Amino acid sequence: MTDFDPHMVLLIFAAAVVTYLTRIGGYILITKMTRIPPRVEAALNAVPAAVLTTLVAPAFFIGGWDTKVAMAAALLAGLRFSPTVMLITGWVVVMAWRHFAGI
Amino acid sequence: MGRADFFEGLKGGIPVGLAAAPFGALFGALARDQGMSLGELTLMSGTVYAGASQMVGIDLFGHNVQAWLIVLSILAVNFRHVLYSAAITRYIRHFSPVQKFFTFFLLVDPQFADTVKRGESRKPVTFAWYLGFAAMVYIPWVVLSFVGGLLGSLIGDPRTIGLDILLPVYFLGIVIGFRKRDNFLPVVIASTAASAIAYRYVGSPWHVSIGALAGVALAAALPPVKSNRKPDLATENHEV
User: Structural domain of residue A76, as residue ranges?
Assistant: First the structure.
């Protein structure tokens, strides 16, 4: 149960190392620049929305109507209320849809 | 001051820790399902500490994909962190080298979002605050991965309890938290289109890097916005 396969452990450490490199890579790059040009700054400001959108969009497009409707409802809730209310709205809608319309 | 900041960080991290915990448990259950041992999956959560890429990783383990391809896929999913670490540099210049080492190790999506939010609202981004926030996310993540692996078979199909909807809604919440930024809508539209097309024709996980690159490239290409920026970013709402 708690055994360690050497190949798996090696793979996990390789994954950890590349992940750490991405997490420090931007710092190393940016400290080598003396000043940040406006376009680089505009690009940096767009990073969070651009990246997280890519984790949302495919879920919406490949998801069934249960997912699409729940995500749309959560979006509307999120524009007015807190993220927690948004999560609960998405969950309630998807469960209601599956319960009443069948999975 | 250090202690007060640490507790403020802990408090700020609570909603994120609560939101991440089910995914930690889900990761544990799915990893167990793909044949990882309890020790291995806990080690992965503790060392990689990156939800989406851990999910991608275990998905590929199950398909017997070559090791270098798995590592490359994890790199693709995590590539956004290069941009995160570049973006938070301005707020953590005063950290010591050892503090920076841990800062970057703990730099996950919500940690990034809240650090930027705190920096932009002119509150001091201290290492004590950062560590408090991170503790509230990291510890539940690792512990719940273990618990999820332990209970794995009991959870069954995550769809029947609606668990599958939480991850996309969670990310959607962070996205709309940035809606007051310059070029928000064009960036989101470009990333949506590029990631959906890439998902269809190139495949996962490349849609993450391709979609993100499209949005960032568009932001860099658009004429710079000469807005009189008020501290509107302080009202951005992406705690979860």
Answer: 48-101
